[in-house]
Amino acid sequence: ACRFALSMKNRRLFRLLTGEMGQKLGDTAFMASLPVPSGCTVFAGNGGPRSHNWPCGVEPNDGVLMVSETLLPSATHLTLPAIHTFIMNRPEVTDAVLSLNRNTSA
């Protein structure tokens, strides 16, 4: 489960903003039950705050997930200087997705 969600899941504002999915991120049993895809690409951000007062602590994170929480076996892993919401806007992500689409449609 996501350390950030675990630390925030009982707070009213977090529940209001994230709804059911925020609660699922903080549910260790649910997260462990998810299948791990093979051959996928994970884009992780490391532009989040690093502080002993932040739920992610001083580990590299995107403000929501720690980079270590994104590591999946058999996945290509790319770490980018971005926060969670803006990872998808990075040119590296666009290039990788376009490249994957070209390779799978050929």
Structural features, described:
The chain is mainly α and 106 residues long. Helices cover 39% and strands 9% of the residues. The chain has four helices and two strands, in the order H-H-H-E-E-H. The longest helix is centred in the C-terminal third of the chain and has 15 residues, at 91-105. The chain is globular, with a radius of gyration of 15 Å. The relative contact order is 0.16. The mean pLDDT is 92.
Features:
2 strands; globular; 106 residues; mainly alpha; 4 helices; 39% helix; two-stranded parallel sheet; single chain
Give the helix/strand layout.
Layout: H1 3-8, H2 12-25, H3 28-33, E1 41-45, E2 76-80, H4 91-105
Parallel strand pairs: 1-2
Task: Give the helix level as a range of percent.
Answer: 25-40%
What does the radius of gyration come to?
15 Å
Numbering strands along the chain, what is their spatial order in the largest sheet?
A: 1-2
Main sheet record: 2 strands, parallel
Envelope shape? globular
- Given the helix and strand composition, which structural class is it? mainly alpha
In percent terms, what proportion of residues is strand?
A: 5-15%
Cα separation of the termini: 37 Å
Summed up, the helix count is 4
* Low-pLDDT residue intervals, each spanning 5 or more residues: none
Number of strands: 2
* Mean pLDDT, all residues: 92
SSE ordering: HHHEEH
